[in-house]
Amino acid sequence: MLFVCVQMVVMALMYREGYRKRVGYFLGIFRKGGTPAAIAQGNLTHPGDVYANLSLIVKPAMREEDLPFCPEKSPLINGPFRVTFPPMLTMAEVEQKNPFVRAGGRYKPPDCQSTHRTAIIIPHRNREQHLKYLLYFLHPFLQRQQLNYGIYIIHQAGNYTFNRAKLLNVGFKEAMKDEDWSCMFYHDVDLIPEDDRNLYTCDKYPKHASIAMDKFGYKLPYKTYFGGVSALTPEQYMKMNGFPNNYWGWGGEDDDIAIRFNMLAKTRRTWKQDGMNTMEYEVLSKEFRPLYTNITVDIGSEKGFHPKT
Ligand code: BGC
């Protein structure tokens, strides 16, 4: 009996601690990110529909170059939104809900000129359901932030072991051919943002955007964790020689990327010998689909790269 009682007390204390941290996290973003206006607008206790504010976007009858600049803080930002998955959702429905999105998954606010040009790079293979729901949330999420953005799906051809980081490298290089993006978001296909105050813009330093995920109890699994969703300017990315190409299969590549920022990396030689400067691949197709640009790529295998002749 005594043992059971002690167990119950310990469990109660642990539960209380977890709850306190979770509340603390939300209060944290509240204090740091929320303007009084955004807090007044956002119904924080009852998160709403991610599409709720988008009907407010109207294209004025004037030339694009005459549009005013977008305000520093988007008035469409509304805080947390409900993440539930509409059953039977189709890509056609996602398209209908995003009438301002152009071919290739490109968007510019119709009513103001955005100073942010963000490309979202998503490595992908055989995750069609995840992709559909991610697009369903990501498009309105980015529109609420009044960004000029493009979504790139980097699809690994063939059945050879997946290589997330190499696909991200390809995404960077190919996306930069389209536009002078000021910020790249490297994004897992199975992660959905829950709060539009998590801005998909770049900072002075590389940024880790998925610091609080449900699967990790809304806290970092370890201090140097850099997986999931991260953001770098093209300059930051080139300075660290991009990402490693030699992590085939699950795990480790994000830890390698994290180490590239660290001063300790200077003593490790590998980051200079494996990255953007050594990457070999061949683009098999590039399609401008309604909700994203699809780039199918042959990235070779562990044994090397043999382009088809
Ligand atoms: C792996 C990372 C992964 C993390 C969280 C680590 O052990 O090396 O790649 O992101 O676990 O799952």
UniProtKB/TrEMBL annotation:
Topology term for the membrane: Single-pass type II membrane protein
GO molecular function, one term: galactosyltransferase activity
UniProt cross-references to CDD domains, sorted A to Z: b4GalT (cd00899)
Keywords: Glycoprotein, Glycosyltransferase, Golgi apparatus, Manganese, Membrane, Metal-binding, Signal-anchor, Transferase, Transmembrane, Transmembrane helix
Record-listed E.C. numbers: 2.4.1.-
Domain Galactosyltransferase N-terminal, residue spans: 70-203
Location(s) in or outside the cell: Golgi apparatus membrane
GO cellular component, one term: Golgi membrane
Pathway note: Protein modification; protein glycosylation
Biological process according to GO: carbohydrate metabolic process
Cofactor: Mn(2+)
Keyword flag Transmembrane: yes
Domain of life: Eukaryota
Principal localisation: Golgi
Family matches, as SUPFAM superfamilies: Nucleotide-diphospho-sugar transferases
InterPro entries hit by this protein: Galactosyl_T, Galactosyl_T_C, Galactosyl_T_N, Nucleotide-diphossugar_trans
Pfam families recorded: Glyco_transf_7C (PF02709), Glyco_transf_7N (PF13733)
The Galactosyltransferase C-terminal domain, residue ranges: 208-261
Role of this protein: Responsible for the synthesis of complex-type N-linked oligosaccharides in many glycoproteins as well as the carbohydrate moieties of glycolipids.
PANTHER family, per database record: BETA-1,4-GALACTOSYLTRANSFERASE
Family of the protein in this entry: Belongs to the glycosyltransferase 7 family.
Protein name: Beta-1,4-galactosyltransferase
UniProt source species: Acipenser ruthenus
Organism classification: Eukaryota, Metazoa, Chordata, Craniata, Vertebrata
